[in-house]
TrEMBL record:
This is NADPH-dependent FMN reductase. The keyword Flavoprotein applies. Pfam families: FMN_red. InterPro entries: Flavoprotein-like_sf, FMN_Rdtase-like_dom, ISF_SsuE-like. Residues 1-148 form the NADPH-dependent FMN reductase-like domain. Keywords: Flavoprotein, FMN. GO terms for molecular function: oxidoreductase activity. It comes from Dethiobacter alkaliphilus AHT 1.
Length: 208
């Protein structure tokens, strides 16, 4: 059983990657195999709206790396998507990836029944995380995925996904930020819960 993480950040190994790695570490602790994919390592061309995928589960664009990503998603039992927030939305790289994943959806929902999860990050505490998270959740639901949450046994964090920030406080009109999302304890707890919940759901579905 495997959970794949897909990072749509334009900056590899930074805050969104750290959130995704926290999700994966918790999933690994539950006995699930994991892999992190950085979309910046792959060439992804824009969808040209040729609609070939309406008739065959394939894309007309053959000279980039999307076929590799299709196979990784097909082989995974669960997929967690991550993106920093750009104007209350996902990054352009993540949006191109989403658009190009139409071949997995139009003829048949090839991701149907797979476990999904999402993490987002913005510098500000109220920096558009909720909308970016809703966009990723809507994408997963459209693909027929079973969207997992970060809900835990105790109260305090109840989101359909994990939201991180570097915002710390605002005193006398001056905002203070931490250096890394790893200093955001709420976000890390949320990521850990998401990883645990995804792993448990993947294992339960695999046992059925």
């Amino acid at each position: 059983m495997k959970i794949l993480a897909i990072n749509g950040s334009h900056r590899k190994g930074k805050n969104t990657a750290e959130m995704l790695n926290t999700v994966l570490a918790e999933a690994e602790a539950q006995g699930v195999e994991t892999e992190l994919v950085e979309l910046m390592d792959y060439e992804i061309k824009e969808c040209i709206s040729c609609n070939k995928c309406l008739f065959k589960p394939e894309c007309s664009i053959k000279d980039d790396d999307m076929d590799k990503l299709y196979e990784k998603m097909r082989e995974a039992d669960g997929i967690v998507f991550g993106s920093p927030v750009y104007f209350s939305n996902v990054t352009g790289r993540m949006k191109d990836f989403i658009d190009r994943s139409r071949p997995l959806h139009m003829v048949a929902n090839e991701l149907d029944g797979k476990v999904g999860g999402a993490v987002v990050h913005a510098d500000l505490r109220n920096g558009g995380q909720e909308l970016a998270l809703a966009i990723l959740n809507a994408y997963m639901q459209g693909q027929g995925m079973l969207v997992s949450s970060d809900r835990g046994a105790d109260e305090g964090i109840v989101n359909t996904g994990a939201m991180g920030t570097k915002f710390a406080s605002c005193e006398e009109g001056k905002m203070r930020f931490v250096k890394r999302v790893t200093q955001d304890e709420v976000a890390l707890t949320s990521c850990q819960r998401l990883g645990r919940n995804m792993a448990k759901l993947v294992q339960r579905l695999g046992a059925e």
